[in-house]
């Protein structure tokens, strides 16, 4: 069963405009949720995480995400895109019924136009 | 002072060879992982060790054998390599097994089997 779904495989924005990367999860338990970023030919870097504290989570580089239980969503946003934000973004869930392993979404490629 | 380091970064080898990828973390973490990223960027867990004990073993061919000589190291040995093993392999570590622990990733090893 798919535990995490990223709704867009590609998102293209102009520099200086807002970014929205969508993520939905499915779980009978209260999940922990993460967003990771992968720049070309690089490893994965943690942007932010939600672990049942504040529902609005602030991360690095101006990114933030809001946990909405009623919508089972954890969308990633940024007010103003920068060229350096162009990368692959992964929404990740950790669940007690999956031995706490990190389950990755399929990724969203963010393209930033000058 | 790299946190999670893998060697080699690139590995090109012929089918049926045996190869190893090494991973070391200097974060003092108890848990280490191997993930495989396929050509479509999809990331899937292969193995997880906690304090040198195997705790997650996904449906991976038994040609893949992880070895953890101590908490700071988790190596991956692959026997009789096949074309389909070509992928990027990521090592990661986390402070513990719980739901709230994020993983720190290495830079990846790009394995190409020819």
Number of helices of chain B: 0
Oligomerization category of the chains in this entry: heterodimer
Termini of chain A, distance in Å? 39 Å
* Largest sheet: number of strands, sense, barrel closure of chain A: 6 strands, mixed
How would you describe this structure to a colleague?
- The complex is a heterodimer of chains A (114) and B (114).
- Helix content of chain A is 0%, strand content 52%.
- Chain A is mostly beta strands.
- In chain A, strands 2, 5, 6, 10, 11 and 12 form a six-stranded mixed sheet that branches. A four-stranded antiparallel sheet of chain A has the order 3-9-8-7, with no helix packed on it.
- Chain A is globular, with a radius of gyration of 13 Å.
- Chain A starts with a strand and ends with a strand.
- The model of chain A has no long low-confidence stretch (mean pLDDT 92).
- Chain B is mainly beta.
- In chain B, the strands form two sheets. In chain B, strands 2, 4, 5, 6, 9, 10 and 11 form a seven-stranded mixed sheet that branches. In chain B, strands 1-3-8-7 form a four-stranded antiparallel sheet, with no helix packed on it.
- The model of chain B has no long low-confidence stretch (mean pLDDT 93).
Summarize this structure briefly:
The complex is a heterodimer of chains A (114) and B (114). Chain A has 114 residues and is mainly beta.
Q: Which short descriptors sum up this protein?
A:
heterodimer, A: 114 residues, mainly beta, six-stranded mixed β-sheet, four-stranded antiparallel β-sheet, 12 strands, B: 114 residues, seven-stranded mixed β-sheet
Any chance you could write out the topology, listing elements then pairs?
The complex is a heterodimer of chains A (114) and B (114).
Chain A: E1 4-6, E2 10-14, E3 19-21, E4 23-25, E5 32-38, E6 44-50, E7 56-58, E8 64-68, E9 73-78, E10 87-94, E11 102-104, E12 108-113
Parallel strand pairs in A: 2-12
Antiparallel strand pairs in A: 1-4, 3-9, 5-6, 5-10, 7-8, 8-9, 10-11, 10-12
Chain B: E1 4-7, E2 10-13, E3 19-25, E4 31-37, E5 43-50, E6 53-57, E7 64-70, E8 73-78, E9 87-94, E10 104-105, E11 109-113
Parallel strand pairs in B: 2-11
Antiparallel strand pairs in B: 1-3, 3-8, 4-5, 4-9, 5-6, 7-8, 9-10, 9-11
